[in-house]
Design goal:
about 40% strand, disordered N terminus, eight-stranded antiparallel β-sheet, seven-stranded mixed β-sheet, Jelly Rolls, single chain, 4 helices, alpha+beta
Length: about 300
């Protein structure tokens, strides 16, 4: 009898642990839009925003394939991309936001875009706002983007004043074109006083922001800076998997995207880790389709 009670106790404990694991969800505080790229969310060339009201538009002829959670979208590197609507701060580049996506690629023959927007006056010298992969500036700083295997080129140019453009860029080299799934997260927020303590002009110079970039829940880059505002918003939409060069698509991504989300605030490092760990646990747990489906059904 005692043995039976012990077995039942262990079974119930296991079920409780399983239920607790299955009911974890992604971070939803500040979540604005969420594109899963599951087949059921795509009709003709429209991709449903399963959280908000900002449906995306498919351009050319991508295919739906296995994703990191259920299905994802495969872009061919020739002309495929997805138009994400201008959403709050993510579209305007003014204020706090988070961009999060999962991607997979083996392509290293040319540079391409996770996303990137250039428009006057920030289309000069091939600069803009976004993330390029397998890309780096040429060694002589001739404003030429060259192909460099496994390098991220992170661009953050702001439209300032009447006709100015100011900001910077940085590169990181990591083995990301390995055919494995990777999480990329880009955040921007107002810096703390402590972060600006060593900035030579402090807040008086204009508009200040802190940019954070994460790969697989690891912080790649975080820097605070200021520009002599006021900032002016970008107006061109974001192309997932291509550069939007003042309305012209180029730098096409060759690979798969999945689980693309926009927040109207900067996720903390702990929240980035939470989203990352959850996707991995979903994969391990046969994708927990019931719990994931109920989350995606909220609008």
């Amino acid at each position: 009898m005692k043995k039976l009670v012990l077995i039942l106790t262990l079974t119930l404990t296991g079920l409780m642990i399983t239920v607790n694991a299955f009911t974890k969800t992604i971070v939803t505080d500040g979540l604005v839009s969420y594109w899963t790229f599951d087949q059921s969310t795509i009709k003709n060339n429209i991709v449903q925003d399963v959280w908000g009201e900002n449906d995306a538009i498919i351009e050319d002829n991508p295919t739906i394939t296995a994703g990191t959670v259920k299905r994802g979208i495969r872009l061919d590197g020739i002309g495929d991309y997805v138009i994400l609507p201008n959403i709050g701060n993510f579209g305007s580049r003014i204020g706090a936001y988070t961009f999060e996506a999962w991607f997979k690629t083996t392509h290293t023959n040319s540079w391409s875009a996770i996303y990137n927007v250039t428009e006057p006056p920030c289309n000069r010298h091939k600069r803009g706002y976004g993330i390029l992969i397998n890309a780096a500036w040429d060694d002589k700083w001739n404003d030429i983007i060259e192909t460099k295997k496994n390098s991220f080129l992170i661009q953050r140019m702001n439209k300032v004043g009447e006709g100015g453009c100011a900001g910077g860029s940085s590169t990181r080299t990591l083995p990301v074109s390995d055919g494995k799934w990777h999480q990329i997260v880009y955040t921007t927020r107002t810096p703390t006083d402590e972060e600006l303590a060593d900035f030579p002009f402090g807040r008086a110079v204009g508009v200040c922001s802190t940019i954070g970039v994460y790969l697989d829940a690891q912080l790649l880059s975080e820097a605070a800076g200021c520009t002599s505002g006021p900032l002016r918003p970008y107006t061109e939409p974001i192309y997932l998997g291509a550069v939007n060069d003042d309305g012209k698509a180029l730098g096409f991504f060759n690979g798969v995207f999945d689980e693309v989300r926009i927040y109207d605030r900067a996720l903390t490092h702990e929240e980035v880790i939470r989203n990352y760990d959850l996707v991995l646990s979903v994969e391990a747990g046969q994708k927990l389709s019931t719990v994931w489906g109920s989350l995606k059904a909220k609008r």
